[in-house]
Design a protein that fits this description.
The chain has 86 residues and is mostly helical. It has a domain of 29 residues. The protein has one helix and no strands. The chain starts with 5 loop residues before the first helix and ends with a helix.
Length: 86
């Protein structure tokens, strides 16, 4: 009652080959390989696009911070000019 033995696996393999034939199994293997390859590419593209969006979000945040700092400096300069003129 232990696990599946080598002989049992061999018998199942022979039955599968007899039922489907080697050509169908070869095509099935190629289709399965293509599907796995496509999945890996999709996952890699997903990670790359996520990394790019994080970088663009960071650069956008940096640009916004820089623009806000510039606006604050200009506001201070204008208020100082107004105070000196008054």
């Amino acid at each position: 009652m232990g696990g599946i033995s080598v002989w049992q696996l061999l018998i199942v393999a022979v039955i599968v080959v007899l039922l489907f034939g080697t050509k169908k199994l070869r095509n099935l293997g190629g289709d399965l390989g293509s599907a796995v390859k496509g999945f890996k590419n999709a996952v890699t593209d997903e990670k790359d696009s996520a990394a790019k969006s994080e970088k663009s979000a960071d650069s956008l945040a940096d640009n916004t911070t820089t623009a806000n700092e510039t606006d604050q400096k200009e506001s201070k300069k204008e208020s100082q000019k107004e105070n000196s003129q008054a």
